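This entry is listed below:
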Amino acid sequence: MNEVSALEQAVAALRAGGVIACPTEAVWGLGCDPDDDQALARLLRLKARDPAKGVILVAASIDQFAPWLEGLPVELHAPLAASWPGPATWLVPDNGRARPLVRGDHDRVALRVSDHPLVVALCEAFGGPVVSTSANRAGEPPAMSAEQVRAVFGDELDAVLDGPLGGLARPSTIRDLVTGRVLRS
C-alpha cells in the first residue's frame, strides 16, 4: 500500500471513530479523534489505561489548537510559539474545550505541535488535532515499530500508518504552562 492510500485509510478510520497507530518523534503512538467519546473510551480500553490520567493531543500547527487556546492570557502564548513544532508537550489550562477523557482528572489539557512528518500529514489531512498516546498496554514498554504494534494489538486497530520514528531517544518533555514545572523531562 502506498503512503497516500495509507494516510487516507488512517484519516478515514479516525473520522469513522476508529483507533489508529502511527510513529511519533520517539515511540509509536495510538490515536483517535479527540472529540469522539466512544473512540476515546475504546483507545483507553485497548491500552488498559486509567481514564484519570488523560491523553496528549498532537497537531500540525499551533493554529489547529486555537479552540483549546481560546481565552489563554496572551503572555502564555510565547512559550508555546517558541517551542513548537517540536518535542515539547505543554499542560494548558482547559477552557472547557477538552473532552473529559482527554483531560482525565486534571484541569489542564496536554498539547504538542509535532514536527514528525507523518504526524503533521495526518493532522493536516484529518483537519485538526488527534490523540497521541504511546502504543502499549499500561505498564508495558511502548512499541518501537509497526511490527511491535501489530504484535501487541493484532487486529484491534483500524489502521496502522507505517513509517520511521522521528529519531528522538525519549518521549517529549511535559511542562505545565502556568507554573513552568517539568512533569516529564
